[in-house]
User: Which sequence fits this backbone?
């Protein structure tokens, strides 16, 4: 199984790192927004896509273009993201390509789901929050614990 | 060595200016900072707008104390490496972030051992004055809890989507297909 894992550099990447054991045994392609990153699993080089701030629509085009290139080459069965905006875009593109999708909202979002999380909630096959009270308020969200 | 970081996405002048002025006053030559697009130009700190991920992690391993915005990446890393961390949240009312989640982060994690919260520049300076006395120990291993990983792995390695007919039947019975 081919899995595409997308996380922005920084906290999102570190959260994904802590979950890597769940993906052992699959062919994993990691994507992030910075250079010089070591893949948490496997020997595929981490691919870089341009970062996008969610409030500037113009910067989304290069990110999308990068994602389309990666999807055409790798054709994943499953797309996983821990955020942020580029990861949400990866889930949308993944859906178009017929892949299953998993969104894991950052532990930083303890009071409301992130905006990216709300964007992908209708299309993601599994939507995870790390706060039980958020999962209780919204039944489309699953709580499996925290990455800590 | 003291390592300062405010991420790479947004400026955080209040924190960078305060630490740099403290370093100047106390002639500290051992402060390294990743300042992102911060406008203020540090005088005494060695500053970089962006340090590549792996080199930054190496600095985190070697430093004595971390001083950061309330980003989860810094907090998790400090807990893993057992480094004392001084945390000052970005205030969205001053335009330092898009929303107040860094205050929420500090409410959730500010009381853990090794995490020293500074709500304002004054509190930051008070902590800086006893920076060499701050202590911490590792409180986190490098992995999420097994129960989280196992439940996630079950979904990840699930063979194929159930056939359409089963999904429709589930839909009609009011259950979600992925609950099967």
Assistant:
């Amino acid at each position: 199984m081919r899995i595409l894992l997308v996380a922005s550099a920084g906290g999102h990447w570190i959260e994904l790192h802590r979950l890597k054991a769940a993906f052992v045994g699959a062919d994993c392609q990691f994507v992030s927004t910075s250079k010089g990153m070591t893949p948490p699993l496997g020997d595929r080089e981490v691919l870089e896509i341009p970062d996008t701030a969610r409030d500037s629509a113009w910067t989304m085009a290069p990110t999308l273009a990068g994602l389309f290139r990666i999807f055409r080459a790798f054709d994943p069965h499953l797309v996983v993201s821990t955020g942020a905006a580029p990861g949400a875009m990866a889930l949308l593109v993944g859906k178009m390509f017929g892949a299953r999708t998993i969104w894991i909202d950052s532990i930083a979002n303890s009071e409301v789901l992130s905006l990216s999380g709300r964007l992908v909630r209708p299309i993601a096959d599994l939507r995870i929050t790390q706060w039980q009270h958020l999962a209780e308020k919204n039944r489309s969200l699953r709580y499996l614990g925290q990455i800590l | 060595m003291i390592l300062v970081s405010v991420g790479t996405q947004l400026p955080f002048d209040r924190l960078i200016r305060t630490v740099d002025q403290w370093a100047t006053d106390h002639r500290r030559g051992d402060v390294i900072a990743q300042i992102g697009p911060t406008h203020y130009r540090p005088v005494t700190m060695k500053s970089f707008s962006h340090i590549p991920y792996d080199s930054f992690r190496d600095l985190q391993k070697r430093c004595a104390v971390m001083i950061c915005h309330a980003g989860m990446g810094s907090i998790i890393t400090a807990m893993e490496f057992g480094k004392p961390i001084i945390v000052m949240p970005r205030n969205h009312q001053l335009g330092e972030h898009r929303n107040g989640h860094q205050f929420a982060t500090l409410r959730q994690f500010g009381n853990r051992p090794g995490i020293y919260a500074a709500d304002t520049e004054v509190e930051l300076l008070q902590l800086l004055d006893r920076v060499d006395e701050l202590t911490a120990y590792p409180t986190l291993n490098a992995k999420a809890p097994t129960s989280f990983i196992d439940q996630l792995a079950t979904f990840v390695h699930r063979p194929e989507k159930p056939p359409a007919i089963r999904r429709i039947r589930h839909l009609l019975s009011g259950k979600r297909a992925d609950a099967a």
Observations:
- Strands of chain B lie at 2-5, 31-34, 46-48, 65-69, 85-88, 115-117.
- Residues 13-25 of chain B form the longest helix (13 residues).
- The mean pLDDT of chain B is 91.
- The domain at 2-133 of chain B is CATH 3.40.50.2000 (Rossmann fold).
